[in-house]
Design brief:
Layout: E1 12-13, E2 20-21, H1 24-34, H2 53-75, H3 82-97, H4 110-114, E3 118-120, E4 125-134, E5 139-147, H5 152-160, H6 167-172, H7 174-177
Amino acid sequence: RCETCSEEEAKYRCPRCMKYSCSLLCVKKHKLALSCNGVRDKTAFVSVNEFTDLNLLSDYRFLEDVGRTADAAARHPTMHSPTTKKLLYCLRNKARRCDIDLRTLPIGFTKRRENSTTFNCMEKKFYWHLKLVFPHCHAEYTLKGVPDDKTLADILKPYIDPVESDPVVCQRLKIYTVSPQSDVQILMKIENRKQNSIR
């Protein structure tokens, strides 16, 4: 049976979430209800008991795709551009002098491409590219050019302050705006964690 309408016999199965559907309408409904994109997750866990030759072939193709992407990134013209290297070297030096452990992703990565962090030599100040994630509301906001002397309280005011925040944003982040400020926790993602670490 179709897992969306529970009336008709199922004809299709979603490659992403494995839900059965009977028609295109039900497929669209299930994608909307579960925020499913319908694209098979190539990195999904498969137990040893269920592992087949098809899974092995899928893993092999995935590794080939990764290899091709890495190779294309290594051949990218900006990878060997003296200007890019000089700017990055300068940014790392400035960060080191400010006692900041600045790490960069290789060229070709989306986060590297989107990052707009710069250092203003005149002001001797970093302007950071920030990504604010509000997990309880499934909301994300990207900020560009945030000066390093701006406090977290000032950065968050336009989002979660009951008085100063934008009404549309305030409504979306209602759980944060109605909560006392002392209950709001600001956490920073730990990069380069060891696998299965409990922190």
